[in-house]
Amino acid sequence: MSGIVGLRVGRPRARWTLAISAGVATVCMVAAGCASNPSNPSPRNDGSKSSGEAVVSIAPGKAAATSPVQKLTIGYSGPFTSLDPTGGAGGSGYFIMGQLSLETLLRVTPDGKLQPWLATSWTQNSPTEYVYTLRQGVKFWDGNELTADDVVFSLTRNAGTALGKAGFYGSVSKIQARDPHTVVVTLKHPNAAWKNTPGLAYAQIYQKAFTEAHQDTFGKPGTLVMGTGPWKVNSLDPTKGAEYAANPTYWGGEPPIKHITVKFYQSETSLALAMRAGEVDLAPTVGEPDSFKSASGVQVVTRTTCGSSLFSMPTQTAPWSDVHVRRAVAYALDKQELLKVTGGANIDTLDTVLAPSLLQNLGDAGAADAALKTLPTYPHDMDKAKQEIAQSSRPNGFSATMASSNDQATLKINQAIAAQLKTIGINLEIKPMPLTAYYAVLRGPADKRPPLFISTGGCAPDPSWDNIFLGNGGLNLANYHPAEVDTLIADGLATTDPAKRLQIYTQILDKLATDLPYIPLFLEGTSYASNNFEWVNFGDFWAHTCWPLNIKPR
């Protein structure tokens, strides 16, 4: 299984998330959305639908702002304790804060394409060999030049299986430096999703010598990191925030924002009040847009993403192992009513585990839309829900426990789900727990996992990223293992033909819609708040980029 995902289990959008891949979990702060596809309408800040925002072309290393900005103050709900891209169980900020300082070989553009970054060019010489030519003259903050050895070291370290990134690197055989400015990645077998990996946050590059000299403290306060990015991190205090200064020798030119201050807040409410008081310029991760606008009086912009919110059921554990129970749940859940509980964080209801835009990204949006129309759906229908539960092994209903993180936003959604299922005799006792305990449940034995509401957060621009819910994927919370699906997953990665991949992923979605290990609920959104600054190209893949380069005064 290939893939890693930010699983939202706490504060929405500025949420604690669980990055999981290849069966390994690691805690990190992630509030990533995924990009709007022009064929997938993007809601504006006023809630209306647009036909797709035009992508503004910005050259690699350049900024959207054309005049100097002396200081930008950014607010987050929740702290970061490390900038180490390998995560670790300590609230790593590599997804958001790390992107100010550490760069990737490529960049994923807002429309899901790839753009040169630290690599000026790349070629695929065979189905299993990729060659990256590095940008020459790029220097770390200490003045040393970036070389292929630094890239090989970083990617190899990022792939470490103990830290949850192995899913993206699982097909890699070797990463080598051909010369000081050329890196060769050889795969064990063809993998259609690999092409995107060098443009994702999981592939950040940092200095080999500095990292080896600070093996035990790399990324932590006091040591920090050594990167090539547009802003040098000067300090990190998990109780307060962080300070960044513009890199005067940045290869793309000194950025117009000269100083960035990051402030941590205990809750989104306290962040909203700080914005109302003028203490914060921009909040990049707003979890409940409706409440935030009311509390802060600040403009909130929301865009659709390719993330999805799901209700997971343990398919190997009775009575959830009964497909009639799962069908009853599918018909009983009123998605439109549940959507209202999310406070504007989610954009629309969803009928497929995989967001439609990811199938559209394969190339033929019309063919993707036609394929999606062939899939089974379960519109809210209480008569059918009662019929299914009557045919099940528990015709009179049953009681079960539903695990939940203890933040109020997540609890509200879980309570709404429980209230709807109670109407067909399924009595869910919601068990709120601290994040550490909640993660222990998710990382525990598959046969012990309870039903769960999950929001996936940041995604990659390839349909294979949703493989994490299946087979050996780190988010197979449903314990769902049909051999047919495992074969289809392997086939979907082995072929690069878009039409064949569309056919394969349609078959996977059909199987999921028939077996119902997960009930798709919402198509997620991503939101930022600011009155004085505009975020150019804000959308799906922002957390995989040096995103402050896209901030400019309104």
What does this 3D model show about the protein?
The model is unreliable at 1-52 (pLDDT under 50). It is globular and about 70 Å long. By secondary structure, it is of the alpha+beta class. A hairpin with a 2-residue loop joins strand 11 (172-179) and strand 12. Helix 4 (268-276) packs parallel to helix 5, helix 6 (323-332) runs antiparallel to helix 10 (382-391) and helix 13 (483-494) runs antiparallel to helix 14 (498-515). It has a four-stranded mixed sheet with strand order 6-15-14-13. The longest helix is centred in the last third of the chain and has 18 residues, at 498-515. The chain has helices at 148-158, 166-169, 208-213, 268-276, 289-296, 323-332, 335-341, 356-360, 365-372, 382-391, 408-422, 435-443, 483-494, 498-515; strands at 5-8, 16-21, 24-29, 42-43, 49-50, 72-77, 106-108, 114-116, 119-126, 129-134, 172-179, 182-187, 231-237, 241-246, 259-265, 300-312, 346-349, 398-405, 426-433, 452-455, 518-529, 533-535, 551-553. It is built from 14 helices and 23 strands.
In short:
The protein has helices at residues 148-158, 166-169, 208-213, 268-276, 289-296, 323-332, 335-341, 356-360, 365-372, 382-391, 408-422, 435-443, 483-494, 498-515; strands at residues 5-8, 16-21, 24-29, 42-43, 49-50, 72-77, 106-108, 114-116, 119-126, 129-134, 172-179, 182-187, 231-237, 241-246, 259-265, 300-312, 346-349, 398-405, 426-433, 452-455, 518-529, 533-535, 551-553.
